[in-house]
Amino acid sequence: MSDERAIVIDNGTGMTKAGFSTDDFPSAVFPAMVGRPKYKQDVVAGTGKQVYVGDEAMAKKGVLKLSYPIAHGQVTDWDDMIKIWGHCFQNELRKDPKQYNVLL
């Protein structure tokens, strides 16, 4: 591990909060949702993306089928949960989880 700080992720039913153990507040807070185009032929805003996570899914919710991988405090869709964690590390925190201790 290159850093003594740990990444802490609070996986909520509605929001995901993430940051570092040494910080007072989370550095990332975003909706715990995953969106996919409603119809196979849909290409959202010309991006060709098949999966949208968090704020990006919320912004395009009119053309996406949304899913929420946590219900009543339990993970109900592990594939989408992994997408949320990937988004958290890559897009929100911009950190490699292999370089940090991680508390979920």
Describe the protein's topology.
Layout: E1 6-11, E2 15-20, E3 28-31, E4 34-37, E5 52-53, H1 55-59, E6 64-67, E7 70-71, E8 74-75, H2 78-93, E9 101-103
User: What is the CATH architecture annotation?
Assistant: 2-Layer Sandwich
**C-alpha-based Rg, rounded:** 15 Å
Using DSSP, what is the number of strands? 9
**Which shape, going by the Cα principal axes?**
globular
User: What's the CATH topology name?
Assistant: Nucleotidyltransferase, domain 5
Could you please describe the fold and organization of this structure?
This protein is an alpha+beta fold and 104 residues long. It has a single domain (6-103), classed as 2-Layer Sandwich (Nucleotidyltransferase, domain 5), CATH 3.30.420.40. The chain contains two helices and nine strands; from the N terminus they run E-E-E-E-E-H-E-E-E-H-E. The strands form three sheets. It has a four-stranded mixed beta sheet with strand order 3-2-1-9. It has a three-stranded antiparallel beta sheet with strand order 5-4-6. It has a two-stranded antiparallel ribbon with strand order 7-8. Strand 2 and strand 3 form a beta hairpin. GO terms for molecular function: ATP binding. Its main location: cytoplasm. Keywords: ATP-binding, Cytoplasm, Cytoskeleton, Nucleotide-binding. This is Actin.
